Design the sequence.
């Protein structure tokens, strides 16, 4: 969706301006016509020459140094999208207040195109109520905010405030312009292992890290889907993913039930507990009271429930974490749970499944066909799963 689109790339004066060079290059690589607008302060960190060399036209820095009589209105009117990366506290404030004090803010005020701001600053500044109020106001007005992430900041500090990754910023641009092969699809993903309480401090859990489910949600969002992620993993998700945090199988079931009717694609990557304590003690069980007898009961099978009420046009994907007879067990689950696809893995193999950054899976379809995805990082596995989903959906409409 970026191909042939006119994108104004605004760069303001923070150390993260160096990452805007990568954003510029990626936008150009995706086929966009990129017009860089650099604030005077950004020139302390990056040069006009760098952007002029990489972008589609020379970088502009001022209202007064351009051959056009009115550069801000020319840029604003021509733009299909304006993205500001990094957006400093000053630019956010000036834009929120309508104070046109440089070419970038003037362009933001002169455009009717969608706007994305990518704030980056020290944690103390980012958390300042004044900054948060400006960001909230911009959001309310329809501006897309690609939130900063946690990590190393200038001067060696660590905290929230780091500019989002260039790839995520470009994915947000693509999404705002309606791009990606999953655009228009609502995708519901579950991730993580559920925790079933025994008492207020103890629970029955499993080794799932949620990495595969989160990679699926991030990949679906990067490809333009509207994504909801129901997760127990407590991990960050890519900008644009709606995150619903849960802990138990019952909470996950309720969160999924509330959203499943609207979903075009549901991917149950979560490792849902099969059993939970029948009764949860109100107080912490005391060692002195002897060894407790924990009686278990089955949890609801969320996926089987979804399969039983699957609506036409809905694609249902399950996961099967196995330690033996991987394919046979997975094939039985596809049928029993009325799935379109199951992602099966042998979690006892090295580098595969729980906690690892990599995975190796077999994709089994309801028609019995099979595709092997060899060991790869979980984002690549997510790509293969979503490719298979798209293929299934295009077959269904043929
Ligand atoms: O039958 P099994 O638990 O191995 O099936 C795994 C698949 O079923 C996964 O997709 C998992 O998310 C889902 N599941 C579920 N509810 C349960 C147990 C598993 O939705 N209670």
Sequence:
């Amino acid at each position: 969706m970026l191909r042939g689109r006119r994108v104004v790339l605004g760069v303001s004066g923070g150390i993260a301006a160096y990452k805007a060079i990568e954003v510029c290059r990626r936008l150009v690589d995706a086929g966009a016509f990129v017009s860089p607008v650099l604030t005077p302060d950004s020139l302390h960190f990056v040069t006009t020459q760098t952007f002029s060399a990489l972008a589609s036209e020379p970088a502009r820095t001022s209202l007064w140094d351009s051959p056009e009589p009115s550069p801000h209105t020319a840029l604003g009117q021509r733009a299909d999208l304006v993205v500001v990366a990094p957006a400093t506290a000053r630019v956010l404030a000036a834009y929120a207040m309508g104070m046109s004090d440089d070419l970038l803010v003037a362009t933001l005020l002169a455009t009717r195109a969608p706007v994305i701001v990518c704030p980056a600053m020290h944690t103390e500044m980012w958390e300042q109520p004044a900054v948060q109020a400006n960001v909230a106001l911009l959001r309310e007005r329809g501006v897309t905010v690609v939130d900063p992430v946690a990590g190393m900041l200038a001067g060696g500090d660590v905290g929230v405030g780091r500019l989002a990754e260039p790839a995520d910023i470009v994915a947000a641009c693509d999404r705002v312009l309606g791009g990606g092969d999953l655009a228009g699809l609502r995708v519901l993903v579950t991730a993580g292992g559920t925790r079933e309480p025994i008492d207020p401090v103890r629970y029955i859990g499993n080794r799932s890290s949620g990495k595969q489910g989160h990679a699926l949600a991030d990949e679906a969002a990067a490809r333009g889907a509207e994504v909801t992620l129901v997760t127990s993993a407590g991990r960050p998700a890519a900008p644009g993913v709606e995150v619903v945090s849960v802990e138990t199988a019952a909470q996950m079931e309720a969160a999924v039930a509330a959203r499943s009717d609207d979903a075009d694609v549901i991917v149950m990557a979560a490792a849902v507990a099969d059993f939970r304590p029948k009764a949860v003690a109100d107080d912490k069980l005391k060692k002195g009271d002897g060894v407790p007898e924990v009686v278990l009961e089955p949890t609801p099978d969320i996926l089987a429930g979804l399969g039983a009420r699957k609506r036409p046009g809905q694609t249902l994907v399950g996961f099967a974490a196995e330690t033996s007879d991987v394919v046979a067990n997975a094939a039985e689950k596809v049928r029993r749970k009325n799935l379109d696809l199951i992602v099966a893995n042998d979690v006892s193999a090295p580098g595969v499944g729980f906690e690892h950054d990599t995975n190796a899976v077999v994709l089994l379809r309801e028609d019995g066909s099979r595709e092997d995805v060899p060991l790869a990082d979980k984002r690549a596995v997510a790509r293969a799963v979503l490719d298979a989903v798209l293929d299934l959906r295009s077959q269904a409409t043929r």
Observations:
- DSSP finds 13 helices and 19 strands in the chain.
- The first strand starts at residue 6 and ends at 11.
